[in-house]
Amino acid sequence: MHRFTLRFLIVLMVAGIPALAELAPVGVPVPVGSWAQQFRESGVGEFDRLEVRMLTDGVHFVASGFMSLASSGWTSYLSETDPLLPVASGPAVDQLVFDLHFSPDSTSTPLAFEFTAWKTGSLLETANLSWDGSAWTIATSSPNCPRPVPEPGIMATLMLGILGAGAFWRKRSSNPE
């Protein structure tokens, strides 16, 4: 009984830990004339603009880069100042699924690109992604993304509640009626 209670309390505490910034591929690359990979951006809080910049010579994004944006009001276009910079923007969201289309049309071609997420002009996340022909490597950083920190009073109340519950269960199990 005590082990179950302890495990239950640990699960409750871990469930409250905020998610870290994450840009992750979804599924496997898909050949669509060129080739495409679906991605999910989440964990940086709300963002309203995404950008991708190809770092590999001879490889480029097809059309405006971003396709199949899974959020209402989001559009993709090429930057006015840099026609090789695909941009997607829309109302602030905290998660977005999208496809990126690449050319040449072989998934065996290695490539690398930079991804950035923005909120009203402030950089939230930068990620460098590389495809080696069979798998993605993703290195992310969140230079300006504030990490949520629980207030000391909340943590103290949580600890007192856990200690009180533990004392109650211990007393109850040692004094069977």
Poorly predicted regions:
11-20
Provide the CATH architecture of the largest domain: Sandwich
Instruction: Name the overall outline.
Output: elongated
Structural class: alpha+beta
Please give the radius of gyration in angstroms: 23 Å
CATH class membership of the largest domain: Mainly Beta
Largest sheet: 8 strands, antiparallel
Tell me the β content: over 45%
What is the helix tally?
A: 2
Question: Roughly how many Å apart are the termini?
Answer: 17 Å
Q: How helix-rich are the residues, as a percent range? A: 10-25%
On the 0 to 100 scale, the average pLDDT is 78
Q: How many E-type strands?
A: 8
Helix and strand succession?
A: HEEEEEEEEH
In CATH, the topology of the largest domain is named Immunoglobulin-like
Task: Please give the oligomerization state of what you see.
Answer: single chain
What is the total domain count?
2
Describe this structure in words.
This protein has 2 helices and 8 strands; from the N terminus they run αββββββββα. Mean pLDDT is 78; it is low at 11-20. Strand 1 (22-32) and strand 2 (34-54) form a beta hairpin. Strands 1, 2, 3, 4, 5, 6, 7 and 8 form an 8-stranded antiparallel β-sheet that branches. The chain is elongated, with a radius of gyration of 23 Å. The chain has helices at residues 2-15, 152-174, and strands at 22-32, 34-54, 60-67, 75-78, 86-103, 111-119, 122-131, 136-141. The chain folds into 2 domains: 2-15 and 150-174, no CATH class; 22-141, Sandwich (Immunoglobulin-like). Helix content is 21%, strand content 49%. By secondary structure, it is of the alpha+beta class.
